[in-house]
Amino acid sequence: MKFTVDAMGDACPIPVIKTKKALGEAGENAEIEVLVDNETAVKNVTKMAQSTGAEVSSEKIAEGQYRVLIQTGAGQQSGGNADNAQEEFSCDCGKESISGDTIVVVSSDKMGEGADELGHILMKSFLFAVTQLETLPAKMVFYNGGAKLTVEGSPALEDLKSLEEQGVEIMTCGTCLDYYGLKEKLAVGTVTNMYSIVETMQQAGRVIRP
């Protein structure tokens, strides 16, 4: 059986996530064609697929167009060791035993320093990646510029609402919402204060920061 994964235009780690899902659905003796638009995506998809024991090849079709071909083998478990590969794209979300909840702390509406437009794209991709984790964080805390992600018009709103529906507590700093004039526009989760933020971080078993 042949599957096609169209990841053209998708930012990291979405091509990997889409491919991992396809591997889980494909089963044994299946061919998966993954279409991406950059060499980094080719390398990431290839590494993840190879970690499952699949045979992988790739080719450049045209400028900005690449194809990764994955052949699953007989007896291969769906997904294989893809969870281990995913750890490289999911910002320190390994599965070793840790006492206390995992929380995600977001202090900006963009990820990293440099080009703001790229930073916004990376942050949206990061939050989408969180929705795809097998073990979701217990809480997500948003403060300073991160507060802009939980209000009306946020490009991440759909992902955050999905996380909330799955039991993730979304908390946004009230002082930050006031500062940006956004308190009346909060669209997901609840308003919190600095004491609660500090207490949540202190009690966490792991804190993930994009």
Helix content: 25-40%
Morphology? elongated
Count of β-strands: 9
Number of helices: 7
Strand and helix order: EHEHEEHEHEHEHEHE
At the third CATH level, what is the topology name of the largest domain?
Answer: Hypothetical Protein Ychn, Chain: A
Query: What is the annotated CATH architecture of the largest domain?
Result: 3-Layer(aba) Sandwich
Give the spatial strand order of the biggest sheet.
8-7-6-5-9
Name given to the CATH homologous superfamily of the largest domain: DsrEFH-like
> At the first level of CATH, what is the class of the largest domain?
Alpha Beta
What is the domain total for the residues? 2
- State the separation between the terminal residues, measured CA to CA: 38 Å
Strand fraction: 15-25%
Tell me the major beta sheet.
5 strands, parallel
In round numbers, the mean pLDDT is 87
Low-pLDDT stretches are 77-98
Please give the radius of gyration in angstroms: 19 Å
